[in-house]
Amino acid sequence: MGWSMVKIAFLLHLFFCFSLCVSRASQGFEHASGVRTLTHEIPNHHEVHCSRERSRVAWQIIEEYLMPFVDEEEYQLPNKCRLHPDNDMFREQEQHKVHVDTNEWRCGFCKKSFRAEKFLDQHFDNRHYVLLNNTHGRCLADLCGALHCDQKSELKKTKKCNPAAVARNRHLCEGLADNCFPVSQGNKASRLHELFHRQFCDAHTCNGRQKPFSRGGKKQSSVFYLAICVLTLMLLPVFYLLVFLHQREMKKGIQDLKRISKAGRKTKPS
Ligand SMILES: [Zn+2]
């Protein structure tokens, strides 16, 4: 009775871990892939002075390190707040990206397919540029200094600290905190104002002691999940073996075990 329960628990546990691992691993694989192809649309220059890539990094930072707390407080970002989704000129396009398969990205507006995300980006720039309206400072990339985009993307790790740049970013950061979470708006806004400072603004110093995103974020990296999965899968059999041995010992008693070990010693080659 006890042993069959252990078996069922073991199988369930194994299945759960395995499915989790597979889903995590495939996610990581999809993100890592990006096959190049020569067939792409001819660039059509509609000058937009805002980096799509950096805007995407800024958006990821907001999604990961700010929105979980905003959602938890059930707080509505004011429209004038530059972190509001409506103030990201690429948001509508990004929401119309359909990642069909590893090598297939589809445009949600006209259903055209592309072999890599960057070609879909080019397609958006060429065919759907009307949506890119930057009239009211809707470029999230401009906030990258305040939001520590470089820290996140780990592309530019500058050792030297520039006090003027740090002061500028801190000022930008504090401006965001004041506009998005006005203290006069009540307790929720005050708490988030405080959090925004801890999470983003406090790290704008040259002393190097404060790290950005000190309050943590939503998602763990897939590498971390994979490591946990592998470890769990490796340790599970050991755990169940121990449970099994313990149960057997309880059932048969120490006397039986002694007899078995004596018999084992006799058969050993000398
Ligand atoms: Zn399209």
From TrEMBL:
Which residue ranges run through the membrane? 223-245
Which residues are the signal sequence here?
A: 1-25
- C2H2-type domain location is 107-128
| Alphabetically ordered keywords of this record | Membrane, Signal, Transmembrane, Transmembrane helix
Name of the protein this chain belongs to: C2H2-type domain-containing protein
For this protein's source organism, the top of the classification is: Eukaryota, Viridiplantae, Streptophyta, Embryophyta, Tracheophyta
